[in-house]
Amino acid sequence: MSLDNHWFTEVDITHGTAFSLRITAKLHEEQTPFQRITIYDTTEFGKLMTLDQMFMVTDRDNFIYHEMITHPVLFTHPAPRQVVIIGGGDCGTLREVLKHDEVKQVVQIEIDERVTRVAEQYFPQLCESNQDPRAHFHFQDGIKWMAAAPDHSVDVIIVDSTDPLGPAEGLFDSAFYRQCRRVLTAHGILAQQSESPLLHLPLLQSIHQAMREAGFANTRTLHFPQCIYPSGWWSVTLAGASGLTQFRINEVLNKKFNTLYYNADIHQASFALPTFVTEALPR
Ligand code: SAM
Predict the structure, then answer these.
(1) Of 92, 230, 237, 276, which has the fewest beta carbons less than 10 angstroms from its beta carbon?
(2) Looking at ligand 1, which residue's alpha carbon is closest to its atom 3?
(3) 41 and 162 in a common domain
């Protein structure tokens, strides 16, 4: 079916915003037990995946998000060996994590296997590292997986989930963060996609508060542009026992893999927050 001059629009009723991409065809659509997965072809952004009619990932701009949810936290950790990804079904985060040679194992816990299988078909470049022997996949609820994980067994946890709705809602509360704190090693760090600093500031505040309540002494938010998400401005929040301001800058400057957005200057600049955000967050 040709949809020339048609648009896919995500309307955010709560915040009175909408964002559209011009589409040429709907390539796939299915209802899974968890969500509706739809794939479109667009005129300017390549392939688009939506989940329950919300923008999730496009060929053109996913690199910003996937680089910024992985490289700052991995270069902040002194020696990440064991990494866990909660969510991440499109596998773009997994691909970035596996660029770090020091990482020995990445376990991805995605509740909906169909997201990964559809991504393998329509976003093969995001899935190009899925056969890496260090990559392990579990298709189950990340909340349950974390509750059963052994103490002090993981160096970095990355929560690359959908918005705090439905199955993802429990990934944004102190009970889950307490489990993450128990599962992380002494210098372990949690990194979570933490929505828009402009539209979701109360949520960002509650994330910091819940992480502190769960025993993380330090929390720190970084931000970056992401045009397909509401407001076009997104964030990731880090939580750790030790400080989060030092990072392995020499290894960033001498890294052997390419990035299109992340670099040492971006690492430092992304943690510089506007006044209205710093005033809302705990010191
Ligand atoms: N980059 C996207 C964003 O920021 O909105 C998210 C990427 S990924 C597609 C989000 C994934 O989180 C989805 O595939 C969804 O199935 C998964 N997810 C939601 N709740 C989950 C849970 N409790 N456990 C594991 N995966 C979950």
Answers:
(1) 276
(2) 162
(3) no
Active-site residue 160, yes or no?
A: yes
Backbone angles phi and psi of 58, in degrees to 5: -130, 160
pLDDT at 283: 84
Nearest CA to ligand 1 atom 16: 112
> Is residue 132 domain-shared with residue 223, that is, in the same domain?
yes
Residue 141 CA, closest ligand 1 atom number: 24
Q: Could you report the average pLDDT of every consecutive run of 10 residues in the chain (283 residues)?
A: 76 94 97 98 98 97 98 98 98 98 98 98 98 98 98 98 91 97 97 98 97 97 97 98 93 98 98 98 89
Domain range holding 255?
Answer: 62-280
- Total number of domains constituting the chain: 2
State the pLDDT at residue 4: 54
195 lines ligand 1 (CB under 6 A): no
The domain that holds 164 is classified in CATH as: 3.40.50.150
Is 109 close to ligand 1, i.e. is its CB under 6 Å away?
yes
Q: Which strand ranges, in their side-by-side order, compose the sheet holding 154-160?
A: 135-138, 105-109, 82-87, 154-160, 184-193, 233-240, 218-225
Active-site residue, selected from the candidate residues 61, 90, 112, 160: 160
> How far is the CA of 44 from the CAs of 122, 243, 271, in angstroms?
16, 41, 30
pTM over 0.85: yes
